[in-house]
Amino acid sequence: MAVALEIAVTSPAGATVARDSGADRVELCVGLELGGLTPSQALVEATHETGIPAHALVRCRPGGFTYDADELALMEREVRTVLRSGAAGVVVGALHPDGTLDEDALRRFVDAARSVSAHAEVTLHRAVDHAADPVATVAELPDLGVTRVLTSGGAASAPAGAATIARMVDAAGPVQVMAGAGVTPADVAALVATGVAALHLSAKRSVGGAGHGGVPMGSGDDGSGHTVTDPAVVTAARAAIDRSA
Asked: In its keyword annotation, does this UniProt entry include Magnesium (predicted)?
């Protein structure tokens, strides 16, 4: 099976760039600088209209992956909303305070997704990299109805975690493993060699802002600009995957 290319995007424009530059799908979120948060209904709808399959991140807040009852209920609702708005899948996850997988939460997310579409794909996001044992965690996934897992192998970047990613591929069984975090086109061949089913890149570049007088708009916005999807990076990643096939 060919290795798929997924690009993290925050806009329909980014999805269009990814589509035209050879990506197979996109992960859609907002607040990428915060690790990603749930996109709005309108953003999902507009991205769906670009024609590339979009998997919507469902994460109600930054700051860890242990959630209370109200947060879990909200994310269940968000799962249903983004799928009804045109998302092809959802990207979800939750952990217990001790770093073990919150299987009950994941089952709730899977059930919510499949209540909208029996074909909805469910990806466990990089909560797995904060788990006490990422390899043992992926071994639990086949019984939970999860399609794939996005991971850096528990390291700061996927290239640094490549050895663990290879172990996760062996442990995951039928669940696809997708390597992501700090991936560049130069890393593709080594990561493909781990046996992953997909690679995940943000493929972003910064564009200048028009901040007024250095007045920040919040801790994540200093007025210096924002990021957009770089078609050259997506094209190079696609070519590197094709060469590694």
From this structure: no
Helices (H) and strands (E) in the chain, counts: 8, 10
How far is 121 from 245, CA to CA, in rounded Å? 24
Given a contact cutoff of 8 angstroms between Cβ atoms, the answer to whether 153 and 168 are in contact is: yes
Cα 143 versus chain centre, distance: 21
Residue at token pair 């770093």: 99
Q: Which of 78, 33, 41, 82 is nearest to 59 (CA)?
A: 78
For residue 115, give both structure tokens. 């209540």
Distance of CA 223 to the CA centre of its chain: 26
Is 232 a residue whose pLDDT tops 90? yes
Q: Give the 3-state secondary structure of residue 183.
A: coil
Q: State whether the Cα torsion 3-114-81-73 is positive or negative.
A: negative
User: Cα separations (Å) of 175 from 126, 139, 140, 169, 180?
Assistant: 15, 9, 10, 8, 16
234 phi/psi in degrees, rounded to 5? -65, -45
- Strands 225-229 and 198-201, by their bridges, are unpaired
Rounded distance between C-alpha atoms, residue 11 and residue 234, angstroms: 15
Identity of the amino acid at 203: A
